[in-house]
Each structure stands twice: as structure tokens, then as C-alpha cells.
Design brief:
Layout (H helix, E strand, L loop, with lengths): L5 E6 L6 E10 L2 E6 L4 E7 L1 E4 L4 E6 L3 E6 L4 E3 L6 E5 L3 E6 L2 E6 L4 E7 L1 E6 L2 E6 L2 E6 L4 E7 L1 E2 L7 E6 L2 E6 L4 E7 L1 E3 L12 E6 L2 E6 L4 E7 L1 E5 L4 E6 L2 E5 L5
Antiparallel strand pairs: 1-2, 2-3, 3-4, 5-6, 6-7, 7-8, 9-10, 10-11, 11-12, 13-14, 14-15, 15-16, 17-18, 18-19, 19-20, 21-22, 22-23, 23-24, 25-26, 26-27
Length: 254
């Protein structure tokens, strides 16, 4: 039987929630981790330990150095100096090193060095990296699929497209980082903001105060010539208004 000075739930470093998978154990003022079966993950040899996810544990020594330990107790990542956890996407761990940001993947391999001013989660396997106020995109393989040329990149949607902004105008990139819609629109109505408008699989765009329509692949259906676009629940159609005239976009336009 394993005997310790104390046993308590291991907390998550970022959200300060109690882990359902791991327990923090102490012996002689040092900390380690066991799982809920009572199996030793890492011996109590660290100054402090945190959980990050069901795959990683962060351990701290000397108040200066941090390392990542997987659920088999293997030290998978030990940088020079300490780090804090920004976010875990499920495939990418975003870390902060004294004001700069980098990433590692699930096996502890470095995806990108800590050279970026900020990094944001865009999808499970993609992050937005910010350098000199410009955004690019890096995938979980460490490939920079989109250079840092945009003023902003939004999260990828369920169709693997992301809105991007350049010089005050919006466009879109696909999952490979290719620009599939030029940055020419004042706004692109995204599914999170206007879910009802996606009932007929359309995207709505605004340019110079006029509305147009794109497919979910960002192919142009209607130029930006309409005064209003809305979804009519009575006829279950996407309708357009031009002056005092109203029409609808047929389903075959999809």
C-alpha cells in the first residue's frame, strides 16, 4: 500500500477545477500524482503539480523550471525556464514563456518556438499565431499553413473555414490556409452569430451597405446589390429585398 502525508484532488492550472482523473499526493513536502486507481503517475519529488488535461500533468521544481509529464509518468517536455499554460485545444498545448508564446503537441514535441506575441486556439488542430500585430495559422504538425499577414483570424467553423480580416475588410481561408474568399467585405455573417440564416446553407456578406450571398464553400451566388437579406420562416426560404420588391433564392442555388 502506498502511504503519503496527504492526498487531495489535483487541480487544473488554468481553470482551477478539480480533476476527476488524478490526485495530488505529498511526502516530506514534495508532491506527486496518482490516478483514481491508486497507480503512481509520478513520484512525490516536485515542489508542486497541476493537471492540464487527461494527457498532461505540469510539475514545478525550484520555482523556476517546469515540465510536462504524460499519464505514464514520462517527462515529455522540459523547456529551459518556466512556463504557464494558456490553453489546450485537444491536440495543441499553448504555452506562455515570460510574455512570449509557443506550442507543443500531444507527444511533447515543439510545434512552434516561443517567439509569438500571442497565440489563440482556432480549432482542435490549429492555432492563430500573432507576430507584430499580424495573424497567421499553424497546425498541429507545426506547419505554418498561413503566414502572419492578417489583422485578425476567427475560429474555424464546422465546414473548416475561418473568417480573416485585412485592412478593415473580411474574407475567408480554408483548412489548408488558402484564401478562398478575398478580403473585400464589410462583414460576413457567421453561423455562430446568425444561426437562423444558415438554414438554407448560405453565407451572407455586406459590401458598401448592400447584401450578397455565398455558398458555404464561399462561392458567389448573388452580388452585393440587395438592401436586405433575411430568412422567411413561413415559406422556409432565404429572401432578398431590393427597394420595395422581395424575392427568394431557390434551393438549386446551393
Amino acid at each position: 500500500m502506498l502511504l503519503f502525508d496527504s492526498i487531495e484532488h489535483l487541480k487544473e492550472e488554468v481553470w482551477d477545477r478539480k480533476s476527476e482523473l488524478f490526485f495530488k499526493v505529498s511526502r516530506n513536502g514534495k508532491y506527486g500524482v496518482i490516478n483514481k486507481k491508486g497507480e503512481m503517475i509520478c513520484e512525490p519529488i516536485y515542489d508542486y503539480v497541476y493537471t492540464i488535461s487527461d494527457q498532461f500533468i505540469k510539475a514545478v521544481n525550484n520555482g523556476l523550471n517546469s515540465l510536462l509529464i504524460d499519464t505514464k509518468g514520462i517527462e515529455v517536455f522540459k523547456p529551459q525556464g518556466t512556463f504557464s499554460v494558456r490553453y489546450y485545444t485537444g491536440k495543441i498545448l499553448i504555452l506562455e514563456y515570460g510574455g512570449k508564446y509557443g506550442c507543443v503537441n500531444n507527444d511533447g514535441s515543439i510545434i512552434c518556438e516561443p517567439i509569438y506575441d500571442d497565440i489563440h486556439a482556432l480549432a482542435e488542430d490549429k492555432v492563430g499565431a500573432v507576430l507584430n500585430e499580424k495573424w497567421g495559422v499553424i497546425n498541429s504538425k507545426g506547419e505554418k499553413i498561413c503566414p502572419c499577414i492578417y489583422d485578425e483570424v476567427k475560429s474555424f467553423d464546422i465546414h473548416s473555414f475561418a473568417k480573416v480580416r485585412k485592412k478593415g475588410k473580411w474574407g475567408a481561408i480554408n483548412g489548408e490556409g488558402k484564401e478562398v474568399c478575398p478580403c473585400i467585405y464589410d462583414d460576413i455573417y457567421y453561423s455562430e452569430r446568425h444561426p437562423a440564416k444558415f438554414l438554407n446553407n448560405f453565407i451572407y456578406v455586406v459590401r458598401d451597405g448592400k447584401y450578397g450571398v455565398l455558398t458555404l464553400n464561399y462561392d458567389l451566388i448573388c452580388e452585393c446589390i440587395y438592401d436586405e437579406i433575411f430568412f422567411n420562416h413561413d415559406i422556409h426560404r432565404t429572401c432578398v429585398r431590393l427597394g420595395d420588391k422581395i424575392g427568394y433564392i431557390p434551393d438549386k442555388s446551393i
